[in-house]
Amino acid sequence: MSYTLAATPETVTLRRAVADDALALAHLSALDSRRPPTGDILVAEVDGEIWAAVSLEDRHAVADPFRPSGEPTLLLLEHARRLRRDRRERGRTFGRRRLRPALT
């Protein structure tokens, strides 16, 4: 999923983090002086560099303080919120379906 930032002409790509992102996430966390996100992680990437990341588990976010990373971070947090809501709704739907008695 890609977005164009309002303040700059860069395009931000939101995607799930993969194992190859571990070093970049550690570096980003060190720059932000915060612990790295854990679990399923979404990243905001600009020109092939990760500017921000957020955990889908607890919404813990880290961002590059030396870049205009506020807007990408907000995009990530909103996307994470939607994904969490969709997961909850699917879980409730599946749960109700499993509890219905079979028709005979």
Q: Structural class, please?
A: alpha+beta
H and E string: EEHEEEH
The third-level CATH topology is: Aminopeptidase
How far apart lie the N and C ends?
46 Å
Q: How is this structure best described in words?
A:
By secondary structure, the chain is of the alpha+beta class. The chain has helices at 22-32, 70-99, and strands spanning 2-4, 11-16, 41-46, 49-55, 61-63. It has one domain: 3-Layer(aba) Sandwich (Aminopeptidase). It is built from two helices and five strands, in the order ββαβββα. A five-stranded antiparallel beta sheet has the order 1-2-3-4-5, sandwiched between helices. 23% of the residues are buried.
Give the helices and strands, then pairings.
Layout: E1 2-4, E2 11-16, H1 22-32, E3 41-46, E4 49-55, E5 61-63, H2 70-99
Antiparallel strand pairs: 1-2, 2-3, 3-4, 4-5
Provide a compact summary of the structure:
This protein is α+β, with helices and mostly antiparallel strands and about 100 residues long. The protein has two helices and five strands, in the order ββαβββα. The chain has a single domain (about 1-100), classed as Gcn5-related N-acetyltransferase (GNAT) (Aminopeptidase).
Main attributes?
alpha+beta, globular, 2 helices, Aminopeptidase, 5 strands
